Amino acid sequence: IDEARRALHAVGVRLKFEGDNIAEQAAEAAIRVAAAVMATEMGRELAHRGDDVRDYSLLAFGGAGPTHANLIADEASIGTVVVPGVPATFCALGAILADVKRDYVASRRIDVGDSTTETLKRGFAELEEEARAWIAGEGEFLDEIGYEHILDMRYIGQGFDLQVLLPYGMRDTLGPEELTALFHEWHDASYGYRDTDSRVIVTAQRVRVIGRMPELAFPALTPEDASPTPIDRRRVFHAGRFLDAPVYDRTGLPCGRAVAGPAVVEQGDTTIWVLPEWTFTVDTIGNLVLRAADATSGTA
Question: Of all residues in the chain, what percent carry a pLDDT higher than 90?
Fold first, then answer.
């Protein structure tokens, strides 16, 4: 700690910070810059999609994510932060819950026409046979097995493909008129126009096999009226000054009781900093939910 403080003090001196807390000012500046960069990138991505960042909640996971999350949300004008029960293994949980999927692909270069139907039917049958053999070796824990039939298609002379998912049952018909009309619809939906005068070609066909994972039931917590008891108090340097913040053990937090920040919430895999004018509560499935005093976000 002393070596870190000396290093930060030297940085702060070079940045011309003054006063008794030069090391703390340098540390806070670094954290603020990191939060601003992450908030800006997040806002830019949502703007590209035409979404308002205020309509979203921020899901924080990993070891460091929950530590930065409240600062990022505050910077980005997001009013709600959700921290799952064990954030450091949240990605692993997602991997366990994810459906098992694999694509089998065959390259093609054929015009959509009368001769297309039988060629594609044979191709789908061959790919399905490979997919069926693979999914059979993935274990008996899968709930159900499904197949999606996809064609990579483009207008003749176009420089890129569009993956078109065939509606259920179309794999057995594959009529040229239906295929062409389907591609026009997908192209129009994706790019805002269709070229009905151009020929349509297939460049690849795919069979995606999907093994559905059984639904995982999470234990439901019962809301309590008890107030949590801090396990400690800690001086936290925030907004240029020290705050006296209670420290809570997350495992001892009751469900449903809102607690005001500033506060520090500790658990085995991360530490969560709750800003002043924010509150936190545990929901019925164990998420820690942070909310700004004037929060209106969190609809998405």
Answer: 66
Say if CB 78 and CB 291 are below 8 A apart: no
Distance CA(287)–CA(280), nearest Å, equals 10
Encoded tokens for 163: 């993956």
Using the predicted structure, report yes or no on whether residue 20 has a pLDDT greater than 90: no
Tell me, rounded to whole angstroms, the distance of Cα 37 from its chain centroid.
18
- Does 298 have pLDDT greater than 70? no
Distance separating alpha carbons of residues 4 and 17, to the nearest angstrom: 17
Residue range 63-84, pLDDT digits in tens: 899 999 999 999 999 999 999 9
d(CA 191, CA 42): 24
Q: How confident is the model at residue 295 (pLDDT cuts 50, 70, 90)?
A: low
Query: Quick one: three-class SS letters along the chain?
Result: CHHHHHHHHHHHHHCCCCCCCHHHHHHHHHHHHHHHHHHHHHHHHHHHCCCCHHHCCEECCCCCHHHHHHHHHHHHCCCEEEECCCHHHHHHHHHHHCCEEEEEEEEEEEECCCCHHHHHHHHHHHHHHHHHHHHHCCCCCCCEEEEEEEEEEEECCCCCCEEEECCCCHHHCCCHHHHHHHHHHHHHHHHCCCCCCCCEEEEEEEEEEEEECCCCCCCCCCCCCCCCCCCEEEEEEECCEEEEEEEEEHHHCCECCCEECCEEEEECCEEEEECCCEEEEECCCCCEEEEECCCCCCCC
How far, in Å, CA of 217 to CA of 91, rounded?
17
- Per-residue pLDDT band at 119 (split at 50, 70, 90): confident
Q: Give the rounded distance of the alpha carbon of 210 from its chain centre.
A: 21
Q: Is the pLDDT of residue 297 over 60?
A: no
